[in-house]
Amino acid sequence: MTIAILQWHNEDPQIGKFKGDDPIPVAILSTPGFDAMTIDQNSLTFGAIGDEKSLLRCKKHGKDVKVDKVKDGVKDLVCYFRPDLGGFKVNDVQGILMGRTASGKMIKGSAVLRIMHLSPKKTESWHKRHNVDPRAKPYRPRSN
Question: Could you tell me the pTM of the whole model?
Answer without folding.
Answer: 0.72
